[in-house]
């Protein structure tokens, strides 16, 4: 089979799997409604077990989170590992039109960390198509921060370079390649540099870099590891709309639950990596949308499977989706979730790379592929099965001769019981959301706490509209071919 034919089959597979399940359940609801009723009961029971398991993982992750943010990691470094002085932190911040206020708060957060600032190489990576705004921002930022860090420099990524997709990955790839000359001139060994690849709105916890350094110096074979922090969307959580808050918390909880299962983890959004590994793999891929998670796969295949993710419970915080109107916020949220769901582009990439790397065990390949397939499928289908399609076979069965069936008569009560138990998942989410919230701004009334609790009644709605729909959208676009593929969409950021 030709490589291109195999690639197209693999691009079509995720959407085919999801649409076959959804359309098949609709057709069977009319042909064999009892079959679908059995399936719905089993599926809801399976999902209830998953919610219970997820809640347990989230609890242990939260315990680790609370414990680790209380530790003075800089003191721990000084007491236990004198080697920390050789480590430098290279922070790259790709930017594409973000306002000065966003970049200023990000850089200011770096100055508040507890790791010595004379060990920081900070890189602001701008785009030529926003050159006037970027250079104006740079002049003000350079004046304010150039004396605070060991090195503060900028690059401007030329527009339209061959082989590139217009997006963050292309900017980061160009900036990363340019950074080698800077680091070489400074005379620092690549093995002594840890790169933190941050979104332009990322604000790191004050002990993030000391914790990262500790992990790097105490982890076995640290050059073959990526370092993934807990990610919270807290920068503007009190100001953003309820629908975007609930969706953001869903992402936060999923990421936190993954931290206690490092064997499943891949990099996502803001993360850190050994600079040596980045040089080895050729930096971030410049022709894809989801470069932040692809970089893990680049390392995984470059080292024939000898590349893992180390979880970090010390968090980084980013902006939640917020726009001038509720409608615009909803549109931006949908586009953001669809961009994240475009991680489905990794599926054909993995399938091809598996053939090129026979040294990686079949079991490891199977686990990686299973996790990817399961994640894509349930992201696109589970909310629809639980909240919408599960009612269709009951309605059809009630109109036909099956209406007298004991199963048909009892199923509504069974489903109601299962859904009632599943509501404990919403309760758990509400509790944990309060535990990870930053302090309430004084400008907000105390009644705002009630909003933060009752907003969770929106969860079924957000799971369908901002979960299943954008995932189906992304998978379908991949299946339809290059004409329908997504480009990189930058989530607009603002400061109130």
Please tag this protein with its features:
496 residues, alpha/beta, transmembrane
Describe this structure in words.
The model has no long low-confidence stretch (mean pLDDT 89). The strands form two sheets. The protein has a five-stranded mixed beta sheet, sandwiched between helices. A three-stranded mixed beta sheet has the order 5-8-6. The protein contains 17 helices and eight strands. The chain is globular and about 75 Å long. Helix content is 58%, strand content 10%. It starts with a helix and ends in a 16-residue tail after the last helix. By secondary structure, it is of the alpha/beta class. Helix 1 (3-31) packs parallel to helix 13 (362-387), helix 1 (3-31) runs parallel beside helix 14 (392-399) and helix 11 packs across helix 17 (459-480). It has a single domain, classed as Spore Coat Polysaccharide Biosynthesis Protein SpsA, Chain A (Alpha-Beta Complex). The longest helix has 36 residues, at 33-68.
């Amino acid at each position: 089979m030709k490589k291109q034919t195999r690639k197209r089959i693999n691009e079509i597979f995720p959407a085919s799997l999801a649409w076959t399940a959804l359309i098949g359940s609709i057709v069977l609801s009319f042909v064999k409604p009892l079959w679908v009723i059995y399936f719905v009961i089993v599926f809801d029971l399976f999902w209830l077990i998953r919610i219970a398991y997820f809640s347990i993982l989230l609890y242990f992750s939260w315990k680790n989170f609370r414990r680790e943010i209380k530790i003075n990691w800089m003191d721990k470094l000084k007491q236990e590992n004198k080697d920390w002085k050789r480590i430098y932190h290279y922070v790259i911040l790709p930017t594409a039109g973000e306002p000065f206020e966003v970049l200023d708060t990000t850089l200011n957060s770096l100055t508040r960390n507890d790791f010595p600032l004379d060990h920081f190489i900070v890189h602001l990576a701008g785009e030529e198509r926003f050159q006037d705004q970027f250079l104006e921002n740079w002049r003000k930022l350079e004046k304010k921060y150039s004396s605070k860090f060991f090195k503060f420099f900028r690059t401007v990524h030329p527009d339209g370079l061959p082989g590139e997709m217009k997006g963050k990955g292309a900017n980061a790839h160009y900036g990363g390649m340019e950074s080698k000359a800077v680091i070489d001139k400074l005379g620092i060994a690549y093995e002594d540099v840890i790169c933190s690849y941050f979104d332009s709105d990322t604000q790191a916890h004050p002990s993030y870099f000391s914790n990262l350094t500790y992990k790097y110096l105490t982890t076995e074979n640290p050059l073959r590891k990526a370092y993934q922090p807990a990610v919270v969307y807290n920068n503007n959580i009190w100001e953003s709309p309820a629908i975007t808050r609930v969706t953001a918390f869903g992402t936060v909880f999923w990421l936190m639950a993954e931290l206690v299962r490092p064997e499943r983890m891949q990099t996502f959004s803001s993360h850190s990596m050994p600079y040596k590994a980045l040089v080895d793999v050729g930096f971030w891929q410049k022709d894809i949308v989801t470069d932040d998670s692809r970089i893990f796969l680049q390392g995984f295949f470059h080292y024939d499977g000898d590349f893992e993710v180390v979880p970090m419970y010390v968090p980084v915080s980013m902006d939640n989706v917020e726009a001038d109107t509720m409608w615009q916020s909803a549109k931006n949220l949908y586009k953001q979730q669809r961009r994240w769901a475009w991680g489905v582009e990794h599926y054909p990439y993995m399938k091809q790379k598996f053939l090129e790397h026979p040294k990686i065990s079949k079991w490891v390949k199977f686990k990686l592929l299973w996790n990817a397939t399961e994640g894509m499928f349930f992201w696109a289908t589970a909310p629809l099965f639980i909240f919408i399609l599960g009612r269709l076979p009951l309605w059809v069965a009630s109109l036909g001769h099956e209406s007298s069936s004991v199963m048909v008569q009892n199923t509504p009560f069974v489903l109601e019981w299962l859904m009632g138990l599943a509501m404990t998942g919403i309760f758990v989410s509400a509790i944990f959301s309060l535990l990870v919230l930053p302090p309430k701004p004084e400008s907000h009334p105390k009644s705002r706490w009630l909003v933060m609790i009752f907003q969770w009644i929106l969860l079924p709605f957000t799971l369908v509209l901002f979960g299943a729909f954008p995932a189906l959208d992304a998978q379908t676009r991949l299946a339809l071919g290059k004409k329908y593929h997504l480009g990189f969409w930058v989530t607009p950021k603002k400061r109130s």
